[in-house]
């Protein structure tokens, strides 16, 4: 998912709208904006792309200087309008809006407990637990209530929460999901990725720290820690696949990181080939790195159709397969008669890769060698990347040679775990370079609660 917020700007709804557009790659299943005019919260949300959810009239009707916004990528809780964020709650104390990126691993357990104590949940999203915990806190201010509630949550979260008067943002103690702070004149902007700060003309100030709670109101911006320090573990998949290349995650540019991954891949697994191609969009940077390192000419061998209507419903396997067919085409003039090395960032279920190899062969490629710019994904993600919903990770049951057979390539290799860590280029003095590698290594930075594990045991 993508989270965006602005405080102290007369055009808050428009800023949120453009911010969400830049975060669209983080979620296409729903979008919402909540705005406060200082007296009450008003909002609009819906299923689908940002462009489809909002009209100019709707944006203009959301008047105020404070806003929280969200694009949804359904992992926990499934699809449906009731799960589209920000979640909005009203009580006689006023309004509350919550936008969340990440996934809580103990939400089910907390939810059962809260229900037994009388709570009634209006969504199936893990995020709603925070609202109930905030509501139950006896503390006075929203920030204090959140500081009470957050230590109870386990897992991944970057939160933007607001009432009529203030914005409170927080990042989980491991910093699993990114969250950055920027300035737009006198206003403050918070976004999952720095590309959204750039789009709205905000200047990057700093990242929200893991375990930091930041309150932004009329008196300014106040920071506190709500929990003691934990091991840093930003999601490595953000660098590999999820984030936009023009974003900097904890001050490392995503395009540059992917390019380094591609270079390492070429060092670890060279191949004789005539052209090096990437799978748009997420693997282009790695393919350029592979080409640069190997001396094999980089070519545009695959074209992505950007205008395929994204599905409004939860992507099922059947839809994914059909989506792939409509989305990519091979450039015959580039690949016909050639030995092609195709760089991609991940093989999750194997469907995409098998299909692309076939596309390239149909277009006349003489050989197709596949190189993946990260290690095999063998373990589910419990922190908000949707490999956790599949249970169909091809690398969890098949060897590299077997996967090569399934996708029909002439050869297949994956970057090593060491290559991934070094290539991303984070601080090597920190354990695992301060990043989560769990879907590759199986070492999760948090406890995985039984209620979260059960659905994946087969
Ligand atoms: P699959 O192997 O499941 O067919 O899909 C892998 C391809 O889809 C890669 O090209 C990757 O860029 C993209 N992809 C789609 N969804 C995900 C996801 O949740 N995680 C990762 N790592 N890649 C994904
Ligand atoms: Fe990211 Fe993988 Fe860790 Fe999930 S398990 S947070 S996808 S690195
Ligand atoms: Mg891809």
Automatic annotation (TrEMBL):
Keyword Iron listed: yes
Cofactors required: [4Fe-4S] cluster; Mg(2+)
Enzymatic reactions: 5-phospho-beta-D-ribosylamine + L-glutamate + diphosphate = 5-phospho-alpha-D-ribose 1-diphosphate + L-glutamine + H2O
Pathway(s) the chain acts in: Purine metabolism; IMP biosynthesis via de novo pathway; N(1)-(5-phospho-D-ribosyl)glycinamide from 5-phospho-alpha-D-ribose 1-diphosphate: step 1/2
Record domain Glutamine amidotransferase type-2: where: 1-219
Record-linked SUPFAM superfamilies: N-terminal nucleophile aminohydrolases (Ntn hydrolases) (SSF56235), PRTase-like (SSF53271)
Single GO MF annotation: amidophosphoribosyltransferase activity
Keywords: 4Fe-4S, Glutamine amidotransferase, Glycosyltransferase, Iron, Iron-sulfur, Magnesium, Metal-binding, Purine biosynthesis, Transferase
Annotated InterPro entries: GATase_2_dom (IPR017932), Ntn_hydrolases_N (IPR029055), PRTase-like (IPR029057), PRTase_dom (IPR000836), PurF (IPR005854), PurF_N (IPR035584)
BP GO annotations: 'de novo' IMP biosynthetic process; purine nucleobase biosynthetic process
Binding residues for Mg(2+): 282, 344-345
Active site: 1 (nucleophile)
EC number of the protein: 2.4.2.14
List of residues binding [4Fe-4S] cluster: 235, 381, 436, 439
Domain of life: Bacteria
Magnesium listed as a keyword: yes
Note describing how the cofactor binds: Binds 1 [4Fe-4S] cluster per subunit.
Family: In the C-terminal section; belongs to the purine/pyrimidine phosphoribosyltransferase family.
PANTHER family: AMIDOPHOSPHORIBOSYLTRANSFERASE
Primary role: Catalyzes the formation of phosphoribosylamine from phosphoribosylpyrophosphate (PRPP) and glutamine.
Name the record gives this protein: Amidophosphoribosyltransferase
């Amino acid at each position: 998912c993508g989270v965006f917020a602005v405080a102290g700007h007369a055009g808050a709804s428009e800023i949120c709208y453009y911010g969400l557009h830049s975060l669209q790659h983080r979620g296409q299943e729903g979008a919402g904006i909540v705005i406060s005019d200082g007296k009450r919260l008003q909002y609009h949300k819906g299923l689908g792309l940002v462009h489809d959810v909002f009209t100019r009239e709707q944006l203009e009707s959301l008047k105020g200087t404070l806003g929280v916004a969200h694009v949804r990528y359904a992992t926990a809780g499934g699809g449906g309008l009731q799960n589209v964020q920000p979640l909005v709650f009203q009580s006689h104390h006023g309004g509350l809006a919550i936008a969340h990126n990440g996934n809580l691993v103990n939400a089910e357990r907390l939810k059962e407990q809260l229900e037994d104590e009388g709570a009634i949940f209006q969504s199936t999203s893990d995020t709603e637990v925070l609202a109930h915990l905030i509501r139950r806190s006896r503390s006075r201010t929203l920030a204090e209530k959140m500081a009470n509630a957050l230590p109870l949550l386990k897992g991944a979260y970057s939160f933007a929460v607001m009432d009529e008067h203030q914005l409170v943002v927080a990042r989980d103690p491991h910093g699993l999901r990114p969250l950055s702070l920027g300035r737009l004149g006198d206003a403050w902007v918070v976004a999952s990725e720095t590309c959204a700060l750039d789009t709205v003309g905000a200047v990057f100030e700093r990242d929200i720290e893991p375990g930091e709670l930041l309150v932004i109101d009329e008196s300014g911006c106040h920071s506190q820690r709500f929990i003691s320090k934990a091991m840093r573990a930003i999601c490595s998949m953000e660098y590999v696949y999820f984030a936009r290349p023009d974003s900097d995650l904890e001050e490392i540019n995503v395009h540059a990181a992917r390019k380094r991954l591609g270079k390492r891949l070429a060092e670890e697994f060279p191949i004789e080939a005539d052209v090096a191609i990437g799978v748009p969009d997420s693997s282009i940077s790695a393919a350029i790195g592979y080409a640069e390192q190997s001396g094999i000419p980089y070519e545009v061998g695959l074209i992505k159709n950007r205008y395929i209507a994204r599905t409004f419903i939860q992507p099922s396997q059947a839809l994914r397969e059909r989506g792939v067919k409509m989305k990519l085409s091979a450039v015959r003039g580039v690949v016909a008669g050639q030995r092609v090395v195709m760089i991609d960032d991940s093989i999750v279920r194997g469907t995409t890769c098998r299909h692309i190899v076939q596309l390239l062969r149909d277009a006349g490629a003489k050989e197709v060698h596949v190189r993946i710019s990260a290690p095999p994904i063998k373990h589910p993600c419990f922190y908000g990347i949707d490999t956790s919903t599949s249970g169909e990770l091809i690398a969890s049951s098949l060897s590299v040679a077997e996967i090569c057979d399934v996708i029909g390539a002439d050869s297949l290799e994956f970057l090593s775990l060491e290559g991934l860590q070094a290539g991303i280029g984070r601080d090597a003095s920190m354990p695992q370079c301060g990043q989560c590698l769990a879907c590759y290594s199986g070492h999760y930075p948090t406890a995985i609660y039984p209620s979260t594990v059960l659905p994946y045991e087969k």
